[in-house]
Every structure is written in structure tokens, then in C-alpha cells.
Design a protein that fits this description.
about 140 residues; alpha/beta; Rossmann fold; 5-stranded parallel beta sheet; 7 helices
């Protein structure tokens, strides 16, 4: 199954090793889950993870190494259409467009309210904890 990871999941994993975000990313690579990334989303991931408040005294090379790993296991998807604005937070439209273009079923996020209405496109927004339970149930 494919899903799009909202940037909030990567930030939460970078800030704490105790949460569901870190647990989910620690399971990668997985045969039953492939993260979907586009160039614009990867640029957002990189810019966000390299901010000093997200590095938390770690060297930038550590974040870069994780991003390299993510690129190695991801499905890279081009997006040829835009539906803006479609969501309450216009910054999240790129995630919706990516999920639809890649034929994903899931958007994994900590901001469920920002993804209200994605059901119209056959998607389900869920937290990292909910997604972890889903993939553990299917294996």
C-alpha cells in the first residue's frame, strides 16, 4: 500500500523517539508500505527537517542521511494537475494532489482537521498511530 506522509509526521519523529511517528518511520523499508513523494514535497521535507528547531543539536548530515534513505525507498510521483484550493489549509493541497496522482489510499498526518474532505477523492486521513495499527493488522 502507498501513502503520503505529511511533514508533521517527519517533524514529530525527529523530535521524539517515543511516538508513533518515530515508530512508523523506524519500520521502513516495509514491503507492505511505500511512502509516496513528489519533488515539491521532498523540498518541503528537507527545508523543514533542516531548521535548527527540528535538528535539536544534531548535525544537519543526520537529517540529510534520513532524507537520502527516504528517497531510496519511496515511490516518486509526478503531479500533472492542481485543484487549488481544495483543503482548509492551502499548503496541504500539494499532499492531496500527490496522493490522488499516485493512487494512494492514505494520508498520514497529525493534523486531521486540515485534511477534512479528502474522502471525496477516495482517501483516508489518519494519524501515524492509526496507520501503524492498520499495517500491523494487515500483516
Amino acid at each position: 500500500m502507498r501513502g503520503v506522509l505529511d511533514t508533521t509526521v517527519l517533524v514529530a519523529a525527529a523530535r521524539s523517539k517515543r511516538g508513533a511517528s518515530h515508530a512508523l518511520l523506524s519500520l521502513l523499508p516495509r514491503v507492505d508500505f511505500q511512502p509516496v513523494v513528489s519533488v515539491p514535497l521532498f523540498v518541503e521535507y528537507r527545508a523543514t527537517l533542516l531548521r535548527s528547531e527540528n535538528l535539536l543539536q544534531r548535525p544537519a548530515q543526520q537529517a540529510e542521511a534520513f532524507l537520502d534513505f527516504l528517497l531510496a525507498i519511496r515511490h516518486l510521483q509526478e503531479v500533472f494537475f492542481l485543484w487549488r484550493p481544495a483543503l482548509p489549509d492551502p499548503d496541504d493541497d500539494l499532499i492531496l494532489e500527490l496522493a490522488v496522482a499516485a493512487g494512494c489510499e492514505y494520508i498520514i498526518t497529525h493534523n486531521l482537521r486540515d485534511f477534512r474532505g479528502v474522502e471525496k477523492w477516495g482517501l483516508k486521513a489518519m494519524t501515524p498511530g492509526e496507520f501503524l495499527r492498520l499495517i500491523q493488522k494487515t500483516t
